[in-house]
Fold:
Amino acid sequence: MTKDAILLAPSTGYLLLGLFSLLWIGLGIYWGRRNKSFEDHALAGRNVGLALGSATAAATWITSNTTMLAPQFALQLGIWGMLAYSTAAFGLILFAPMARRIRQLMPHGYTSGDFFRLRYGRTAWGIFMLFTLFYSLTWLVSMAMAGGILLEALAGIDYVWGMTVILAVCVIYTMRGGLAAVIGTDFIQSLIILVGIVVVGFAVLQNVSVGEIHANLTAHKPQLVEVLFPAAIMALFNNLLFGLGEVFHNNVWWSRAFAFREGVGSKAFLIGGLVWFPIPVAAGFIALASGALGVGVPSPDMVGPLVIANVLGEVGAVAIFIIVFCSLASSIDSLLAATSDLITEDIYRKLIKPAATPERLKKVAQIVTLLLGLGTWAVCVPRLGTLATVLFFAGPLVGAMIWPIVAGLYWRRATSVGAIGGMLLGGGVGLVSYFAIGWYVASTIATAVSMVWVLGAAWLSNDQYDWNLLKEA
Amino acid sequence: MARHLIGRPASSEATGCRQGDRQDGQGPIFPDFSVNTGRKALFFLLLPLLFLGASLAPAQAQSPAFKDAGPLATDTGHLLIEWDAPGEVTLLVAKSANLADADPVYRGDYDAYFLSGLADGSYTLVLEGEGGARSEPVMLEVAHQSLPRALWLTLVGLIITLGIVIAIVKGARDD
Structure:
């Protein structure tokens, strides 16, 4: 047997794939039927309530990485690794007050690109667009690739078929339904994922006690329960800052801040963060139990599915298949919607056709979604393994954007020089440290360098930015 | 190595005979038309099976082998170990070179195992096949990253995070 373990009969896999594909497309078309303008399509009419808002925040943040990479973190870095992954919840929790501020400063805003252009000017906006498109597109490609690989590993579904179906389903319902469809399907997907993870966690505990897991780790993998595990304690704040950078800058989250009803954003992101926090702990716990359960792990990213299938048999394999499909769809649809909005608003409307009608903009957003899907598919077909690892280069880039965003939202004295220097210097030094030391320090160092530059520039500046300029968007 | 030759026919050099000779020195094995037709037919029927057996036998008894002959090193205590083996294997990890304290960390038919959670030290890795055949040992050196540097970077991370929290919570009070 190879590293690619097949846990489910391909016929069952195809059946589940077909059923869930029909469900998401049907719901997407249903929820998108009232969309008339770009505002309806991109921001769901700016009228999303608390329940849907909280669910979409949690579901979008539960990617296939949460269900696959969180167990891998625990297997590699032990208890600290498990907690390090959970710290990404602070991205949502700290974005809660920022969402209120964003909505207050930019009541007519569409994208995070609008903020950079109006607050810091074209040069900073250009750098931001470069960084965020790199991050979004590599995330999109890595999710689609992960989808194909996981469906093949779980049910023997051919990689190209699995990847194509997941992408096609997400493209169809995002094109038809826009953000309303994305948020609606996220609500159902988040419920399925949460119930699945809780059931699996209890099932594992029925088979092995916490005491047995600890004894097994102490005897065979002592470093995983070691308090002073160097790589793991470095990963703690690095992952936290990576998470903050991802949420603070990306249009996936800004579009939701604009879409949520007045007063909903701060509560929805807080609840979403609190709901998300225990999920990597539960997923990581499953990985730590692998040794005590006698499950051999031939590939670290497959530890979660292998343990679940071992404990729950075919029912577990079906459960992990559905959880993985839901977590992939909930992230791919959000990325497609947010990235197409960013390109439509920041490039098409602002640079090419400022006089475009709302109906025309909606059409353009749909075409961009389709093109993004086709482009992602073309990049994913050759299955180049190195592409997925490129996403980790984004760690220092997103870390370097934290301080320009926080300072720009709250301080009149924050300057363009500070934002541009912070992003370029932080991103550059962070990338160097990525290769010189390791991924587990790159975001920390990038954020530190960016912070020093942004704070220094603001301290030396006499600027008094007029917040009303942000209302233009 | 001797165990690689289990099941293989002995070579002509080893036996001192030429091909086609009987090993008892009674003349050529074939063509020998003095034997009866039934025995001859049986001989030609069994001949392909002999060749088939000869070609399969070495594979069954082949020793497992690591894909990377090492020595291996890691500064995080984890790495993926891969191997080639015809069937089920046991991966043994020991701190002593003579494998006296060998820990069987994996037994099964996968061709890889993700080893993690290793503390600082030197380890010897050995694969044991179904028939007891063992691979060449591979040395693994685990030397974790510098703890003082890790603690400093953690402190830096804490300070940055506190700065961000303060900036957001304090908000725009001066506006």
